[in-house]
Amino acid sequence: MKITLVQHACSADPEANLGRVHDGIAEAAAGGADLVLLQELHNGPYFCVREEVRAFDLAEPVPGPTTERLSGWAARYGVVVVGSVFERRAAGVYHNTAVVLDRDGRFAGRYRKAHIPDDPGYSEKFYFTPGDTGFEPIDTAVGRLGVLVCWDQWFPEAARLMALAGAEILLYPTAIGFDPSDDDAEQARQLDAWITVQRGHAIANGLPLAACNRVGTEDGNHFWGNSFVCGPQGEMLARAGAQETVLSADPDSARPEQVRRVWPFLRDRRIDAYVELARRFRD
Amino acid sequence: MKITLVQHACSADPEANLGRVHDGIAEAAAGGADLVLLQELHNGPYFCVREEVRAFDLAEPVPGPTTERLSGWAARYGVVVVGSVFERRAAGVYHNTAVVLDRDGRFAGRYRKAHIPDDPGYSEKFYFTPGDTGFEPIDTAVGRLGVLVCWDQWFPEAARLMALAGAEILLYPTAIGFDPSDDDAEQARQLDAWITVQRGHAIANGLPLAACNRVGTEDGNHFWGNSFVCGPQGEMLARAGAQETVLSADPDSARPEQVRRVWPFLRDRRIDAYVELARRFRD
Q: Which of A4, A40, A42, A192 could form a disulfide with A248 if both were Cys (CB 3.0 to 4.6 A apart)?
């Protein structure tokens, strides 16, 4: 499965951003991609930097206008597209939703971000109702996709539940960046930790993994790019810098089963001893 | 908390190996260590390379002869010692057990390896009954220790359960090595994956972590050393090569709480959605 990530900056003009998305999909398809992974909330600036009621006007239904655009491009170029939409589900119920369009344009499924962050510059708990889709992979013509979103990437539980449900790859649309008030050493630790924890999920589950992050400075957040694809031993297959780019990798689809034969972690999980993972804290 | 790891080769002579352990503890204490982490099954060669009934004769009670030796050294040098014993619990019930001796020599507790590997050269399922201690940290004068053993290090569940129970550091006595029939690239991926997945546990839980591995070639297994200590963002604090060494690091005890304030993963875990982690596979 050849996978291509479209890493870009976002302006305040949704049409310009969707134009960048279109061009990325077209470029990916021309390069032979089977699947295109877009970044989180690719239609516009990262509005969660502050809490503003009017920002809810950016939300839209799913399926809806953005999925229709993505669906048309998926069909036109014959690629599976994983996109990201600020979903309006009902008045007062909004989600940060990943959407999957199959390569014939069919709406293959959605995943609503389960783990919602809230820290300075990332006020997501104000906007996003925690997802209730559970951790269910989405079947497409190119495989069973374990689609998660951004903050989910820090939680081994999410990756594991996708793997247990038969996901063949883990995919993370992302918007993460540096706090400019942090010093260089802290910024370096954060970027490295972000990559490392995800490589850890790949290793623990014997699955390839891709994360697509945005770039550019928006309202104090400096999005760090560094989109990457790794294989089932966490080995780096492709990694971007902090510039706009279209990044491709071609994980060997036979490799995960080989890796899981050598490292049969799923065989040895102590499912009799894990019940307390569903507790907040064991005190 | 200054932590020192004693990474060494093992001969067929238990007294020589325990002498190496003693010297490592003495050297660690002279260097100001608060805690000494030993490697897995440090008393002798890694006998699990094949299945031999007579190898059970190596097992001993816990507390027992080895814990008594370690206890004496812990008290003499005033350091907490985390050791590893082939435990005979009953006829037919043997465990791969980590033991903790407090700095006054008191037997502080044990952890019986929960995840038991079995692959060519590592026939541990023949020898070790899966542990039933659960994932309970062990309190000592220098903190609450999340002691796990070797193969546990590939399982995010084990690290998480220790963190949820208030562990202040994750510690892994280890015996892992290369299969000489693998090519250099595969060996490099395996070593990097072993370090990365553990750094991932440190990150996901906001905890420092140390793994102490053996070195040397024994009966076809080439133990890769590379013992290390990382901080709560997975940042490498100290890392050994493949030679015998005494390795120290001094993780900042205030850092985990700071990291968890910036990255409050424990706040955001979706404990309502994790119940299926206790399933073998979600099919």
A: A4
* DSSP per-residue letters across A12-63: S-HHHHHHHHHHHHHHHHHTT-SEEEEPTTTTS--GGGS--GGGGGG-B-SS
- Which H/E stretch holds residue B156? helix B156-164
Residue A132 backbone dihedrals phi, psi, to 5 degrees: -125, 20
- Does the pLDDT at position B46 exceed 90? yes
CA–CA min distance A81, chain B (Å): 25
For residues A116 and A155, the answer to whether their CB atoms sit within 8 Å is no
- Of the candidates B165, B203, B277, the beta carbon closest to that of A197 is on B203
Rg for chain A, CA atoms, rounded: 18
Which of B10, B48, B150, B212 does the annotation list as catalytic? B150
CB B115 within 8 A of CB B124: no
Phi, psi of B136 (to 5 degrees): -115, 120
Contact B114 A273 (CB under 8 A): yes
Contact at 8 Å (CB) between A230 and A199?
A: yes
Residue with tokens 């814990």: B67
List, in sequence order, every residue forming a beta bridge with B119; answer none if it has no partner: B122
Beta bridge partners of B101: B81, B107
Q: Which of A40, A87, A124, A168 is catalytic?
A: A40
B84, B42 contact by CB (below 8 A): yes
- Catalytic annotation present for A113: yes
Q: A275 vs B280: CB contact, 8 Å cut-off?
A: no
| Burial of residue B250, with CB atoms counted within 10 A of its CB: 0-12 exposed, 13-18 middle, 19 or more buried | middle
Distance CA B210, CA A153 (A): 23
d(CA B108, CA B72) in angstroms, rounded, equals 13
Asked whether the whole model's pTM tops 0.90, one would answer: yes
The contacts of residue B236 (CB under 8 Å, 6+ apart) are: B199, B228, B229, B230
pLDDT tens column, B146-178: 999 999 999 999 999 999 999 999 999 999 999
* pLDDT higher than threshold 90 for residue B220: no
User: What is the structure's pLDDT at A262?
Assistant: 94
Residues of chain B found within 8 Å of residue A278, distances taken between Cβ atoms: 271-272, 274-275, 277
ipTM above 0.85, yes or no: yes
Annotation marks residue A40 as catalytic: yes
Residue A108, class by beta-carbon neighbours within 10 Å (0-12 exposed, 13-18 middle, 19+ buried)?
buried
Quick check: A7 and A23 in contact, CB under 8 A? Answer: no
CA dist A71 and A106 (Å) reads 7
Q: What is the pLDDT of residues A210-262, one digit of tens each?
A: 999 999 999 888 999 999 999 999 999 999 999 999 999 999 999 999 999 99
Domain edges within chain A = 3-278
Q: Class for domain B3-278, per CATH?
A: alpha beta
Which among B154, B262, B274 has CB closest to A119? B262
Q: Which residues of A touch B190 (CB under 8 A)?
A: 233
